[in-house]
Design a protein that fits this description.
Protein name: DUF3298/DUF4163 domain-containing protein
CATH topology of the largest domain: Heat Shock Protein 90
Number of strands: 9
Distance between the termini: 33 Å
Radius of gyration: 22 Å
Order of helices and strands: HEEHHEEEEHEEEH
CATH architecture of the largest domain: 2-Layer Sandwich
CATH superfamily of the largest domain: Fervidobacterium nodosum Rt17-B1 like
Strand content: 25-35%
CATH class of the largest domain: Alpha Beta
Helix content: 25-40%
Largest sheet: 6 strands, mixed
Number of domains: 2
Strand order of the largest sheet: 1-2-3-4-5-6
């Protein structure tokens, strides 16, 4: 009986520690005005609840991402999401006064936590915007945070050996996309700048591995859509600064 009680207490403590290491969020939902001459705006992102440094960094970075997607001007006073929504709406209404037949604009942003351990938490933001033209634009962004230091991480800060990782990623990219290892990286139709492989603007931790995503136009045409590459942690831990236990 004592052995069973001891095992239960150990399991309880283990679960409690794992739960305590997780950050707490509530959904934050913002919508634009509901009127015939208003653009459609729908924002859904997590909002960290405590006042820890990492929670403050998360909320600040998510807000900055929303502002950058919605803002059409260089106005430095747009420093919060409500102002960004208003800026997007005002830009559309101003255009409608000049071109009454302008097709309704849209903006949709959805953010979720895609990975979290005791060291790192990663968010994925999927956004879609239409501001006229032949089609809208969809993109995916990853935001990685060091939970212990309470800061957002730049891509290069994820690695102990960035050059080694980039070489490894290129090999895997060529295999996935059927590009001969001894051929130019653009030989099958890609559009890497300078005809040299480079990492994408967005990469992030996921449960399956580190995901690299090239958004539309980044290295290929719009019609090709986003290009994704997932690298399992057991193959890349030697390159990472923050190792992932599997």
């Amino acid at each position: 009986m004592k052995q069973l009680l001891g095992a239960f207490l150990f399991f309880f403590v283990l679960v409690s520690c794992q739960t305590e290491s997780k950050l707490t969020f509530e959904p934050l939902h913002l919508k634009g005005e509901n009127c015939e001459s208003c653009p459609k705006i729908d924002i859904n992102i997590p909002n960290a609840l405590d006042n820890s440094p990492v929670s403050q960094a998360i909320n600040r970075s998510l807000q900055e991402e929303v502002i950058s997607i919605l803002s059409f001007s260089e106005d430095d006073t747009i420093d919060e999401m409500g102002k960004a929504l208003q800026s997007f709406s005002d830009s559309y209404k101003e255009l409608r006064t000049k071109f009454p037949d302008e097709v309704q604009w849209e903006a949709e942003i959805d953010g979720i936590v895609v990975y979290e351990d005791e060291n790192v938490i990663t968010f994925m933001l999927n956004s879609y915007s239409f501001t006229g033209g032949a089609h809208g634009y969809a993109s995916t962004s990853y935001l990685n945070f060091d939970k212990k230091k309470g800061v957002e991480l730049e891509n290069w800060q994820l690695f102990e050996d960035l050059d080694g990782f980039e070489d490894f990623a290129e090999t895997k990219f060529r295999i996935q996309e059927k590009i001969p290892q001894d051929s130019n990286i653009n030989s099958t139709g890609f559009m890497f700048e300078g005809e040299s492989f480079h990492l994408p603007n967005n990469l992030g931790y996921t449960n399956e591995g580190l995901k690299l995503i090239y958004n539309q136009y980044e290295v290929a045409s719009y019609a090709d859509g986003p290009i994704e590459l997932i690298l399992p942690y057991n193959e890349i831990n030697l390159y990472l600064k923050r190792k992932v236990k599997e």
